[in-house]
Design brief:
DeoR/GlpR transcriptional regulator; 15 strands; 25% strand; DeoR_HTH; three-stranded antiparallel beta sheet; Rossmann fold; DNA-binding transcription factor activity; Arc Repressor Mutant, subunit A; alpha/beta; 252 residues
């Protein structure tokens, strides 16, 4: 494929999904990651896209706030996932909740019980306290990342490593039986891996569009997690519940 057609294909993918990753484009177009990065740099210089860590987003999405766009994407599915996940929470539980947008919606669905939450997202902390004054909420301190609206970095992981939780709720950028649970940045991955390691039970929240998608780093194999909660659109992914070792739960 010549460079002009390749860049057109990149723009087509952006128009379809709103966000692309270097890894996915490299595999799809059968070129090196360096070639894709050069294409993205050129498209950005032409004002057609905006580069982000590990990929790019549509120009208009950035202007409207890419984070808000991610929250609204598949919102009904995320609400269903959040409701099912919330049923797993009991009185006096200690929870890790990472900064994914599905967890922001989960925060609105949590039951009105006295439990403790440790999160790296001030937005999630606010949502929980808006709906439940009984909950004790702690925000992990670290370097603030505007793209993810979260605190990330070594200090966040160090704090997590001193805490033992009953359940962690973790988002996914991609998931498959072969590659496990993937996220789209190394910084996110380190936080998620630490939360999983320090929790009795790990629960992955992933709407159906995340199945078969790639990421930059695996945070856990399917064997290493306890549950995956997704929406009924899962039936269109080409996978079956059996592909995920009986750990899949589908929200209505």
């Amino acid at each position: 494929m010549n460079p002009i057609k390749r860049r057109k294909h990149i723009l087509d993918e952006l128009n379809k999904f709103g966000e692309v990753t270097v890894i996915k484009l490299s595999e799809m177009l059968n070129v090196t990651s360096e070639t894709i990065r050069r294409d993205l740099s050129l498209l950005e210089s032409e004002g057609k896209i905006t580069k982000i860590h590990g990929g790019a987003v549509k120009k208009q999405v950035v202007q409207e706030d890419a984070f808000s766009a991610r929250i609204e994407a598949h919102r009904e599915e995320k609400i269903a996932i959040g409701k099912l996940a919330a049923e797993m929470v009991s009185e006096r539980d200690t929870l890790f909740i990472d900064s994914c947008t599905t967890n922001l919606i989960l925060a609105e669905q949590l039951p009105p019980l006295a439990f403790s939450v440790i999160t790296n997202s001030a937005l999630i902390a606010d949502k929980i306290k808006e709906h439940n004054l009984q909950a004790r909420v702690y925000v992990l301190g670290g370097e603030y990342d505007y793209h993810f609206r979260a605190n990330l970095g070594v200090s966040v992981c160090q704090q997590i490593n001193a805490i033992h939780a009953d359940i962690c709720f973790i988002g996914a950028g991609g998931i498959s039986p072969q590659h496990g649970v993937l996220v789209k940045s190394f910084e996110e991955a380190y936080v998620a891996k630490a939360m999983i390691a320090m929790s009795k039970k790990s629960v992955i929240l992933a709407d159906h569009t995340k199945f078969g998608q790639d990421g930059v780093m695996c945070i856990a194999s399917i064997k290493e997690i306890d549950n995956i909660i997704t929406d009924k659109g899962f039936t269109s992914t080409g996978y079956t519940p059996q592909d995920f070792a009986g750990k899949l739960r589908i929200a209505d």
